[in-house]
Amino acid sequence: MSSSTALLSLVLLSLLSSTAVCLTCYECVFPTISPLECQGFPKKCAAGERCLYSTATAVKDSVRFVLKEKSCAAASKCGIRGEKRTAGLVFSYNTQCCDTDLCNAAAPPGAPCWSRTALSLGGTALAVLLASV
């Protein structure tokens, strides 16, 4: 591979990796109460937003309430746990996010999702290896 071709490849790869990538995430029209899963519809998120999956659980008189929500969210809304009192109930909530299209289809597994940054770095390393062959 000539040096000009390798340079052009690196410039194009750099431009592609720096372009803001907008995710498509499921978004619930209305949050739902268990045992039903909220019916999500695909939505294009704003640049920098992540796919969010949130659950809030409360128990009253041996009845368990679980609210579920899916949406696009700013990174600051991710990984939050806490309690909130509303309608005479104390809800324990947990928000988790992921970084691939439609990754919030169901409750996220315990393992973290690969971030777009990690995938981008892997792609860059592969391009450099291929350019040197």
TrEMBL record:
Q: Specify whether Transit peptide is a keyword of the entry.
A: no
Domain UPAR/Ly6, by residue range, is 23-117
**UniProt keyword annotations, A-Z:** Cell membrane, Disulfide bond, Glycoprotein, GPI-anchor, Lipoprotein, Membrane, Signal
Q: Does the keyword rRNA-binding apply?
A: no
| Compartments (UniProt record) | Cell membrane
Its membrane topology is listed as:
Lipid-anchor; GPI-anchor
One biological process GO term for this chain?
sperm-egg recognition
Q: Name one GO cellular component term.
A: plasma membrane
Matching entries from SUPFAM superfamilies are given as: Snake toxin-like
InterPro entries according to UniProt: LY6_UPA_recep-like (IPR016054), Snake_toxin-like_sf (IPR045860), SPACA4/Bouncer (IPR046354)
Signal sequence, start to end: 1-22
The entry sums up its family as follows: Belongs to the SPACA4/bouncer family.
Q: Under what name is this protein listed?
A: UPAR/Ly6 domain-containing protein
Species this protein is from: Pangasianodon hypophthalmus (Striped catfish)
